[in-house]
Amino acid sequence: QDHVCSLPKVPFRGAPCSDAAGSQVPYATIMKQVNSSLSGLLWDEVQKAPFYEYKDSVGQFHQVWFDDPHSISLKAAYVKSRGLRGIGMWNGNSLDYSREAVAEQQTQAMWKALTP
What residues does each domain of the chain span? Predict the structure, then answer.
């Protein structure tokens, strides 16, 4: 099926989500890779999240799901509309804190999106 990626089963390692077979990719890598990916940026309306697909150097298919300022702002607005006490994001140190202008813009947009 289009845009369906199955994950192999791995043993539970004793922590939330530790049985997920994926790996973490830094936001800087995602932002550089998404534009040259097979699919370009895709959006899942159910998850309210972006993702993209690519093949690696040996031809293996990969799917990368992530949050961006738009998806984070939707989640922050949901939290606010329900009167919940807060929101956070997983591993903010994966953002790109280099001095490149584009990286600074992307990182600032991510942090700003947390406060609707």
Answer: 19-114
